[in-house]
Specification:
The protein is mainly alpha-helical. It has one domain. Helices cover 81% and strands 0% of the residues. Helix 1 packs antiparallel against helix 2. The chain starts with a helix and ends in a 6-residue tail after the last helix.
């Protein structure tokens, strides 16, 4: 019983790791899009955009 529980935990952790990697990949894509769309945005604007994106999960207009 304990062995199957550990296997289940390991499987869930693997799924979680895959999801976290995908989120990181999507955030990188979104950041690159922001840099392309707003090449003259200041560092503060980029930081605000990234923080808002991270908190709400939605893009904001600068």
């Amino acid at each position: 019983m304990q062995k199957s529980k550990n296997a289940c935990v390991a499987e869930r952790q693997e799924e979680l790791d895959k999801c976290e990697a995908r989120v990181k990949e999507l955030n990188e894509i979104e950041s690159n899009k922001m840099a392309k769309d707003y090449p003259d945005a200041s560092a503060q604007e980029k930081l605000l955009w990234a923080l808002t994106r991270g908190i709400t999960g939605k893009s904001v207009q600068i």
